[in-house]
Every structure is written in C-alpha cells, then in structure tokens.
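User: Show me a protein chain along with its predicted structure.
Assistant: Here is one chain, sequence first, then structure tokens.
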Amino acid sequence: MNNTSKNPACKAASGTVITGKWHKESYRILKELGYGANGYVYLASSTSGLVAVKISDNSMSITSEVNVLKHFSKVQEYKLGPSLLDMDDWYRPELGITVPFYVMEYLKGENFIHFITNRGDEWTGILCSQLLMDLNRLHDAGWVFGDLKPDNLLVTGPPPQIRWLDVGGVTVQGRSIKEFTEFFDRGYWGMGSRVAEPTYDLFAVAMVMINTAHPNRFPKEKDGPQQLKRVIQSTSSLKRFEEVLLNALEGKYKTAIDMRRDVVYAMSRASSAMPVEKKKRAQVKQSPPVKQVVPKNHQKRQTSKKKKSKMGFIETIFIFVFLLLAYVFYIYGQLL
C-alpha cells in the first residue's frame, strides 16, 4: 500500500517548468518533498510564491484528494490541511501523455517527531489533543484520515499548531482504507480491520504517541498486542497515558472527543502530581533560614542618612515660609 507510483510521468527534475493545460499557470520545480502510493509532491515556485505540487498518474486519486481539500477550505478557520490553490493537467510532449496535478499551500513548520524531541515529551499530549479535535471534525464530515503518521503531520506556529500534509489516505467512512503505513495500521498488528471508521484513526493516534517515545520504531513480534502493552508499560513518558493508549489500541473509544477528554485528564493528573514531588524534594534539600546580620557601621550610616533627609525637609519648609512672608510684607509696603 505504500509503494511509490512507478510511472515516470509523475517524476519531475529540479528546474522543470510545469504549465497547466487549462489555466496556463506555471510552476518551476525546486525539489522533491515526498512521495506516496499515488504520486510525488514537489516544492515549486510560482507567481504567488512557494507552493507544493502533487503529480499523479491516478486521476481518480487526484480528484478525491482535491475534494478533500475543498472540504477543508469550508472549515478553513480550523486550518486542518493545506489550502487548495489550483488543479490542472500537464502535457508532457517528450512522453506524449498528459498527467493531472494539483497545487496547494506550502506549509512551513517542523516535523512532528523533531518538534517533540527538541522541546520535551510533555508536548506529546498537547499536540495529540489538538490532532484529536481536528480528527473529530473530519469524522463528523464522514471521512477517515487513513494514513495517519508523524510524516504526514507538521507543527507550525507560533503558537504551535498541528497541520496535515498529505491527504492521500483520506477515505470515506465505510470503505476500505486506501493507503496505510504498517507501523500505524491496526490490521498489521492484528488488532482490527482496515475498514475506514473513526476507531481506525484513533488506533493510529495511539501509535503516533508511541512513536514519539520510540522514533526509530520497532519490528512487530509474534504477540503484537501484548508487545505494544509491554512497550507502553516500560516507557516512562507513555506510562501516564497507559489507560488512554490501551483503550485506543483496543478500539474502545467511539469518538475522537472521548479519547481527547482522557488525554487531557491524564495530562492534568500528571501536572498536578509534579509540584508535590518537587515540593518534597525541596523540603529535603532546604537549609535552615540564615538570620541576616547587619554590620553596626552600616546601621549608623542608615540612621545618619535618615536624619539628614529629615533635616533637609525641615530646612526646605522653613525657606519656603520665609520667602512667602517676605513677599507678603513687600506687597503690604507697596500698598502703603
């Protein structure tokens, strides 16, 4: 399911200019960004700046992905995925064929795993709670993400926000999953079917969380479900989410919101416990309070400064009163 499209029509070298057959917009290929079962994605320059271009030999797949992006545009305030900018055909005279492509917003950000590695595992729950909220909107619209994995997630910001990169695996609920990656696929682990339903995505979210703690992933053993349980229980950063992860892996959550509620609860429970531990450590290490000793000379200087300040204030008042009386007598003398 993850084999790259073999058709050379989908390949484009750096410097290649793609011009749409119908809209006549041109895009200069800069470099390859990624690939999937249905084509290649490239970074390209255009008259409006940098964009991402996906080329595929599968017109039905292109149409399906474009429809998903159009749906995203209707809820763009949530910024689920990249904005759709253009869709057209590219005629390749050297091959004598026409291939479809579409153009989308180029998202700048940081790889999901890299972000958490650089900033700390406490971000796992925060970002996954965002992801679950977005998945809930997708599920309510009748879709399933399908090929959910860190490679298809980007963290933009500030503030940090999850964005989806590749919607090639998005599938209408009730159908068979179009694309999947084995490590995140419940069928691979023997824990469910590949029918597109919310529980399929929630299994993948649990595996994404496991992947943050094990960036290199690990091969499946014979007892796959028990293996995942052992990994969770033996990893400190995952132990606090143990109940949530096991429920998601076993398909016990009906909606993404249900899973998100438990993720948030697990985070709040962990954060409330942390200050107590720190306080105990601080009490053990804390030394008796040291009474501050002020030198006598310093005390004398402080007393002298206060006296001088007080005398200065009295002198100022005296001078002010004297000048006021002198002015009154002067006016009185002028009147006489």
